């Protein structure tokens, strides 16, 4: 089992460009999450999907959109990238919502917006 | 809003010493408290968790204690080893049970 996989590993964008971060999990988990990690800020939740077909905003959703393509895949889209979106992005999954279940994290995507 | 505070932000110990990281949370409805370890260039990985009906949990050299009255919980690592060097995050679930709120992390350095 690969667990949670993310592509790409690294990306450099210019301000205003768009891109989609891909995430897939092979653990048959119902819930999936997107976080961003900035120095000294910990992990902040951008969006989550409790189950296939549902998505909800987290703490910092502005400038992002998500798609729960199927049970395995959850993508994060930046429509018009800004320097403030320079960060490391982590996808995670859990059997059910975060209430009391282990979240499994992917290896991260390091994004730089110039 | 819901908040988790974590201290210290950096911690340096000698190999074999103990390390303690402390967190406080604001939402009295929180009932799940995981601890994650993040090695350089990798995603966080769960090392231990505790639920509100338990005051202490131990797994080999790692233990977590929870004081619900004071709304704080702590990670204890005994007999530290260089491979324990990493960033450690505490977290608590929010009232709705939809998300984990993370602390800002503690960078632990264990020198041999």
What this model shows, in words?
The complex is a heterodimer of chains A (114) and B (112). Chain A is an all-beta fold and 114 residues long. Chain A contains no helices and eleven strands. In chain A, strand 5 and strand 6 form a beta hairpin. In chain B, strands 2, 4, 5, 9, 10 and 11 form a six-stranded mixed β-sheet that branches. A five-stranded antiparallel β-sheet of chain B has the order 1-3-8-7-6, with no helix packed on it. With 112 residues, chain B is an all-beta fold. In chain B, strand 9 and strand 10 form a beta hairpin. In chain B, 0% of the residues lie in helices and 56% in strands. At the A-B interface, strand 5 and strand 10 of A face strand 4 and strand 5 of B.
Salient structural properties:
heterodimer, A: 114 residues, mainly beta, seven-stranded mixed β-sheet, four-stranded antiparallel β-sheet, 51% strand, B: 112 residues, five-stranded antiparallel β-sheet, 11 strands
Q: How is this structure best summarized?
A:
The complex is a heterodimer of chains A (114) and B (112). Chain A is mostly beta strands and 114 residues long.
Topology of helices and strands:
The complex is a heterodimer of chains A (114) and B (112).
Chain A (H helix, E strand, L loop, with lengths): L3 E4 L2 E4 L5 E7 L5 E8 L3 E8 L6 E2 L6 E5 L5 E5 L8 E8 L9 E2 L3 E5 L1
Parallel strand pairs in A: 2-11
Antiparallel strand pairs in A: 1-3, 3-8, 4-5, 4-9, 5-6, 7-8, 9-10, 9-11
Chain B lengths: L3 E4 L2 E5 L4 E7 L6 E7 L6 E7 L4 E4 L2 E6 L4 E6 L8 E8 L6 E3 L3 E6 L1
Parallel strand pairs in B: 2-11
Antiparallel strand pairs in B: 1-3, 3-8, 4-5, 4-9, 6-7, 7-8, 9-10, 9-11
